[in-house]
Each structure stands twice: as structure tokens, then as C-alpha cells.
Amino acid sequence: MLNVLEVNIESAGYETGNAKVHHIQFEVGTGQLVGLIGPNGAGKSTTIKTILGTMQEVKGEIRIGDGTGIYAYVPEQPILYDTLTLWEHLQLASAAHEIPEETLHERADELLEMFQLQEVKHHFPSTFSKGMQQKLMLIIAFILKPALYIVDEPFVGLDPRATGRFLRMLQAEKERGAGVLMCTHVLDTAERVCDSFILLHQGQIVARGTLDEVRAVSGIPDGTLFECFEALT
User: Which one of 32, 68, 99, 195 is least enclosed by Cβ atoms within 10 Å?
Assistant: First the structure.
């Protein structure tokens, strides 16, 4: 298995001398979905920002894909332009990544139909609900078809039907060979769909690996991910 993400963070924080995470080391392989979990304040956001290159105080190294640094990031809070329609958002993203117009239409039509946004593709997302905005962020990511997805709390605002469609798309992208790093508090879903886990607590990794490996560290041989989470944090 090739790695599409290699993380080696010695320390990272928002200001000099005040690191929020220490010794964060893990990989995401092709076709692998890794869950990044932990309580509030554990260092998940700092870890993601470090991977994205938006933290200034960092000691360590991040390697994405083949070294080009191309990935799709879906933030917890949708980031959209008030003056662009849904379709114009898709055009902007595809142009930035040099996706041909024909390919954009082919991919977008299927995704818009899947997430039930076809009828509002020429509307402004500022008029959308949070769930509709989140769907648009997911569509933009899936149109790019990158080697790596970084997804932060993707289930917030999605109804059960949209959640199912999102998970099926993730599975299809895994089968294509993409890797996924997913940060979530929805542990029952994470337990069902993730191949392995990175469990953070107080800025450090307290467990990593498959569910069985996390169970071994937590001392709960038959525990759920939630039970292991409670025991370790």
C-alpha cells in the first residue's frame, strides 16, 4: 500500500513556546479511511491545520500524495462565496484544478442529482440551509477526484439520506485508490466505516490502528469505539 499522506509532527501550536500537539505520527494509505477522533481540545483541529499548512509554529514534516500537495479539504463550516451561484462554485474549483468543462459537466450532473441539488444549481448558496451548503462542499471535493480527502465533521447538517450517499461516494473513492482522513465525533458511524483510527488526547496520540488494536490499548477486548474512547480520554 502506498501512502497518500505521511504526518510527522514533532510539535505545533498557535504561538511560539505553546505547542498544542506533540509527536503526532501516522500515515493514510491508498484506499484507506482513517478516523481522527478525540474529545474537544484534544488537538484535532491543530493537527488538521498543520497538515493543511496553515499553522505557523510547526516542527515536523507533512507529505501529501506524490509531493504535489494536491488534496480536497471539506471543512466543518462551509466556506462559500456570496456572489457566486452553486454552478459557478463548481466552475471555479474545476478551473483551479484544470478540469475540462466536459469532465465537469459529467461529474457534476451525477453528483448534483445524487445530493438533490440539481434544481438549485443556478441559485446562490447564501440562501441554502446548512445541510445544502455542506452538500455543495462535498460535491466540490468529489468533482476534483484527488488522491487524498481531508474531511472535518462531514455529518454535521446532513440528513440520514445524504449521509448514506456521502458514505457510498467515499467507498467508491476508496475503491478508486483515494485515501481519506476524516475527523468526526460520530463514533458509531466511524466504527462502521473507518479502516483504522488515530485517537488524540491532550495533544498526543493515545491509541492508533484498527479497532482491535485500539481495544487492546484501552483494555476492553470487546468494547465499542465509544467505550474505548471513554476509557482512553
Answer: 68
User: How long, in residues, is the chain?
Assistant: 233
Residues in Cβ contact with 142 at an 8 Å cutoff, skipping those fewer than 6 apart: 72, 107, 111, 169, 173
Supply the pLDDT for residue 70: 79
Q: What is the pLDDT of residue 69?
A: 66
Q: How many domains does the chain have?
A: 2
Residue 165: alpha-carbon gap to chain centroid: 16
Which of 101, 122, 145 lies at the terminal end of a domain, its last residue? Answer: 145
CATH of the domain at 216: 3.40.50.300
- Give the domain extent around 52: 1-71+147-233
Check residue 156 and give its pLDDT: 83
Closest to 186 measured CA to CA, from 206, 171, 204, 166: 166
